[in-house]
From TrEMBL, chains A, B:
<feature type="binding site">
    <location>
        <position position="378"/>
    </location>
    <ligand>
        <name>Zn(2+) 2</name>
    </ligand>
</feature>
<dbReference type="InterPro" id="IPR036264">
    <property type="entry name" value="Bact_exopeptidase_dim_dom"/>
</dbReference>
<keyword id="KW-0479">Metal-binding</keyword>
<feature type="binding site">
    <location>
        <position position="125"/>
    </location>
    <ligand>
        <name>Zn(2+) 2</name>
    </ligand>
</feature>
<dbReference type="Pfam" id="PF01546">
    <property type="entry name" value="Peptidase_M20"/>
</dbReference>
<dbReference type="GO" id="GO:0016813">
    <property type="term" value="F:hydrolase activity, acting on carbon-nitrogen (but not peptide) bonds, in linear amidines"/>
</dbReference>
<dbReference type="InterPro" id="IPR011650">
    <property type="entry name" value="Peptidase_M20_dimer"/>
</dbReference>
<dbReference type="InterPro" id="IPR002933">
    <property type="entry name" value="Peptidase_M20"/>
</dbReference>
<dbReference type="InterPro" id="IPR010158">
    <property type="entry name" value="Amidase_Cbmase"/>
</dbReference>
<dbReference type="Pfam" id="PF07687">
    <property type="entry name" value="M20_dimer"/>
</dbReference>
<feature type="binding site">
    <location>
        <position position="79"/>
    </location>
    <ligand>
        <name>Zn(2+) 1</name>
    </ligand>
</feature>
<keyword id="KW-0862">Zinc</keyword>
<feature type="binding site">
    <location>
        <position position="90"/>
    </location>
    <ligand>
        <name>Zn(2+) 2</name>
    </ligand>
</feature>
<dbReference type="GO" id="GO:0046872">
    <property type="term" value="F:metal ion binding"/>
</dbReference>
<keyword id="KW-0378">Hydrolase</keyword>
<comment type="similarity">
    <text>Belongs to the peptidase M20 family.</text>
</comment>
<feature type="domain" description="Peptidase M20 dimerisation">
    <location>
        <begin position="205"/>
        <end position="302"/>
    </location>
</feature>
Amino acid sequence: KIRGERLWDSLMETAQIGGTPDGGIRRLTLSEEDARVRAWFQAAVAAAGMTLSHDLFGNMFAVRPGKNNALPPIAMGSHLDTQPTGGKFDGVLGVLAGLEVIRTLNDAGLETEAPLMVVNWTNEEGSRFSPAMLGSGGFAGVYSVDQVNGRRDSEGISFGDALEAIGWRGDLPPKGQPIGAMFELHIEQGPILEAEGKDIGIVTGVQGLRWYEAVFEGRAAHTGSTPMALRKNALLPAADLIRAVDAIAHAHAPDAVATVGHVSVSPNSNNVIPGEVRLTVDMRHPKDAVLAAMDAELHSAFARILAGSGVSGGLTPVSDVAAVAFDPDCIRAVRDAAERSGLSAREIVSGAGHDAVHIARLAPTTMIFVPSAGGLSHNPAESTAFEECAAGAQVLLDAVLGYDRR
Amino acid sequence: KIRGERLWDSLMETAQIGGTPDGGIRRLTLSEEDARVRAWFQAAVAAAGMTLSHDLFGNMFAVRPGKNNALPPIAMGSHLDTQPTGGKFDGVLGVLAGLEVIRTLNDAGLETEAPLMVVNWTNEEGSRFSPAMLGSGGFAGVYSVDQVNGRRDSEGISFGDALEAIGWRGDLPPKGQPIGAMFELHIEQGPILEAEGKDIGIVTGVQGLRWYEAVFEGRAAHTGSTPMALRKNALLPAADLIRAVDAIAHAHAPDAVATVGHVSVSPNSNNVIPGEVRLTVDMRHPKDAVLAAMDAELHSAFARILAGSGVSGGLTPVSDVAAVAFDPDCIRAVRDAAERSGLSAREIVSGAGHDAVHIARLAPTTMIFVPSAGGLSHNPAESTAFEECAAGAQVLLDAVLGYDRR
Ligand SMILES: NC(=O)NCCC(=O)O
Ligand SMILES: NC(=O)NCCC(=O)O
């Protein structure tokens, strides 16, 4: 049985690293705060007797030997990076619960058949470097090494340089660490478990996700002395696109979601007509066919808006991650574990993307969800209760042991 | 006769201070670059034998004695700060042409009746600290000392602290420097003079101007796992407001202009529903009554958008500068000067705001415009030809001498 207080203490201790006054965390990937939480994790897995390696993308793999070390390890884990104004549970819970599982087995002197592994995937959030799930995507071969290294943040710093700067670029190539299976515990980040009073979400899959970057290029000019008829205002088509993206989601209600989350206006001065506007578009749907239709609608809306705007522009796909169905054996291990602990559970499809999506290409994979208060995530007020975290870690332990015994 | 090359050399020399690779200038008010251009100006007026003082707002007054120093000085000048991506002429031309007038009179050994003065007004642009024309507004008593000092930039730094930091806070109180009259040479920043092939704009007044800050507060949440029906997306009403502001200008065509120039989205992450959006609104019209109508339309559009949005928000006026008619005697001095030089000229109302607007409350004031290529300003590509700058400086000299002889 895992020790809930120890898990909670680790959550609250690491929450100090990049902790913000509002109770959230700002720990952008490959930042100085990320370096500090990596050092914390390195010390913690060493203290738990594990062996740590890391790959070309800075993904960290901590291994606890099993009886049969010829078997590929069963992995647990998630990510330690956060949103710019993130909460205390998104990602961190999955890594620290993996650590808690190891600590519990150490306390009990219990040896598994296969080795166990706790993983911290780099840049899951995709806020500093888009797309999201970049470290696990690079590991799984979805993105090439050069693609990953070449991604740039809003200040023009590349992923490769930022990784080098914090000293976590390793030698392991993509797929260089064998994985027998992966179980990722995560907060739901949505309202369903709470609304239905369930303790555990048995995650059967993840909806598809497409990201785009849109740019409009007009002409910066004086707001006072430039007549309306002579303007090339890049912000007007941007406003239209924001509305069009929202309308596309509503046209595929209730399952579709579509959002413009990032807008940058240049030169962004009160008395200058916007010369350039950049936006990101995020669209998702559980069915790939519907997502493809939404993609087509986005392209035609963009073309229509651009044509009527008098400015130039472009729409570039940034990532396209198909919907994923998780492994039936892994799912069964989670269902059995929840039942054994007497927890209420339901099957659920993840609205958020996760590293498990990419790892599912390489190995049997699934996820375990615990409730998010008010369905809120990517927000400092993100909240999952002590007992809920502990219940999730217990199911993680039991699912891993169940899968290992198989 | 002024020396066009000397004026041009000074323009190009100061353009290095904050100069950008695209030929523009980034010299935000009270920045390190502003401190450097102030030091340049200080040295230049000292070399021209002038006496420099500065006031509580960092406005700089360089005086050349006249025959009768009991008379208040006739002022020339404008501002040395620029937009974040500004050009080489906006503001700078008016200050350096004033300096060129003094240098010309020194060369000719000519003494005026009244003393002459060259002024550099602080924070005319209003990009770093809104509103625009803040230094001249403080000097004229339009804003209190505390109001000016309390304005904050987007990083939270106050005007007062920034002024202190560059060492240019003086003792002179508002209206502490007597002014007999003011002539401000400036680029038109609009397309009219060029389109009509005129050398000189005899500026009869400046249109009215109102600035506002709008904020929408929704709830930051995950873009993938938050159903459309549960969202509070602050960016959707912001998009509607951008469109509404544009529509208000079109409803009062052809003279009205209205623009959202600045947008800041928080947390501005690809996969976070925008939790807070701040925008600025800039509306102008030559007739105060029309501008008042536009103000009412903005408030009702804002209320309507807010009511339908499910988010909270507010609309705050930041500045309200009524339309100004310049002094007939000053205007006549400019018209006579243009005629004497054989330059083509037309009367014109300024679309942009200028320090002259506030100084017109204290003393007879007017402005002289020279053409802007393509009507473009607040853009690194802003361009006024050598001969046009020289012609403007010549008219400035002649207008000041004509007014002084009166
Ligand atoms: N789980 C999570 O928040 N992942 C970030 C990637 C996404 O936007 O879904
Ligand atoms: N002349 C000029 O660009 N002034 C800035 C204030 C304004 O926006 O009109």
